[in-house]
Predict the structure.
Amino acid sequence: MDVVDLARWQFGLTTIYHFWFVPLSIGLSAIVAGLQTAWVITKAERYLALTRFFGTLFVINFAMGIVTGLVQEFQFGMNWSAYSVFVGEVFGVPLAIEGLLAFFLESTFLGLWVFGWDRLPKLVHLGCIWLVAIGTQISAYVILMVNAWMQHPVGYRLDPATGRVQLTDFGALLTNPMAVEAGLHTAAACFLTGGAFVAGLGFWHLARRRRPAGELVAFRTAAKLGAVVTLVAGAALAVTGDSMMKLLTRLQPMKVAAAEGLFATEQPAGFSLLTIGTADGRRELWSVRLPELLSFLATGDVGGRVHGVNDLQERYAATFGPGNYIPNVPVTYWSFRLMIGLGVLAAVLALVGLVLLRRPSLLAHKVVGPAALVVPVLPLLASSAGWLFTEGGRQPWLAFGLFQTADGVSPGRTTGEVAFSLAVFTVVYGALAVVEVGLLRRAASRLPSAHTKEESYAGDGAEEDEVPAWS
């Protein structure tokens, strides 16, 4: 592999590794805020116990997400400085906003929430975790604005003197249709991840049954809440995914054609259940299709036209000049299906879990425990596949129609340098993964005892040195 390939591998691995923490943090922060709100309103002991339990797991995951996010942003200067120079005046503002949100809003109020249990008034303390939850959503959207610009550049001008792009309309960047659709779709994916995590741990503890009665009640609440959130998020993903598909058909038709293994333009076009093509991604050898379904999904009309890979290649070559504008079709095709399939499987298992809760005796079956531990992993794998589809299907562009990937690598970087840094990243991230899993496993193995005394808050008679053990 050459420098470009290695640099892409490094950025891709860094991004996917980082995004294992992001959706869980976003989804879990809102669920923890909801649990604490339920406790403040109802005074039910199980809600406080669950708030502390999942709050601990959220803090561990959030810390890892911050660290890996910093490393991801460093990639622009390490291996992609040529692209950073080209796009810096556009990316500078949103990345600065995201940094302020991550380190000043989210981290500050998370610290107040962690150490403020016995020091802050009840509603102020509750407000801190809600600000964290809101901040994670805003922070994620700002990053998606940057990625959306790469998918569909808006609000810029190309300076002929410098050859760089300049931001001319921040409002256009903020309301980029690709960012809006991606923001909604990603938010649903985050709640699917958070809900599956809560449901999985709840069912795992219920399957073990080696718990006091009070803890089993709490975990039953967690299992039900997580399963419901997962199902609702799954439905939201289907709706937002359908909208995103239609938008991609207009803005990135090559990505849609590659995702469906559609090599020739068809009207109407069938949805591919399985397609086998040639190695160069230019010709279909065999396929099984559902008639007219792709036309409906892509255009909203069962008789709609969907352009194929080869026709789009000719159009792009005429527009942008000679070159290969076809992405890696097998990667785009299968990552698209894995994204959908794994997400649907998580929702189906959540539905099965709700059925099991109505038949408690079935929770003792030996399959339930291992299956419960699989559920939280499914949305994470689906998100990873989704990013492979999103980024791989855009190739060969870094900024669609403006800047190609091959031109973005830092000048002077050698294959050996990038290979060495990739190896170091892999080893370090592997070690961090072991630490993360160990911390989560330890924290998830038991439910912290609930502390429901009103005097656990400052201003209600709390002792200043009383700090909950979980924090």
